[in-house]
Amino acid sequence: MFKKFTSAAVLIVGLAAFTACDKDNNTTPANDTVQLTASLTGAQEVPANASAGTGSFTGSYNKSTHVLTYTVTYQGITPTMGHIHAGVAGQNGDAFVPFSNVASSPITGTATLSDASANSLLSGAYVNFHSSAYAGGEIRGNITTK
């Protein structure tokens, strides 16, 4: 009887230990990741301009890790710099994610955001590129969630 009890106890402890080991415990819940997008044009710049250039931004922001992963493309411009700024449509704001190399499209990258930058990203931010022709900004797109 004692032998059966010991065997049963070992089996129960083993099953409990096996169940506690979750291989997928490093996955991010779907609601922790926000998908982002923007379409860039000269008409969205402040002030608006007549540039024929266009661009796009796609990204994802993980609320748990504070990591933004992004891809930005542009066509019809020769940018001198580009970044993500705080600011809603019609307003200019401070840059908080600079793009390290704007010489060719596409631009991909990651950035770990502060709480303030994350709040800006999710409540009002935009992507823009500057050029020698439009030093204040040639194309811009306001970031929205998908």
TrEMBL record:
Record flagged with keyword Signal: yes
The identity of this protein, by name, is: CHRD domain-containing protein
Q: Which domain of life is it from?
A: Bacteria
Enumerate the spans annotated as CHRD domain.
34-145
Species this chain originates from: Hymenobacter jejuensis
Q: Which PROSITE patterns match?
A: PROKAR_LIPOPROTEIN
Task: Give the signal sequence positions.
Answer: 1-22
Could you tell me the keywords of this UniProt record? Signal
User: Which InterPro entries does the record cross-reference, listed alphabetically?
Assistant: CHRD (IPR010895)
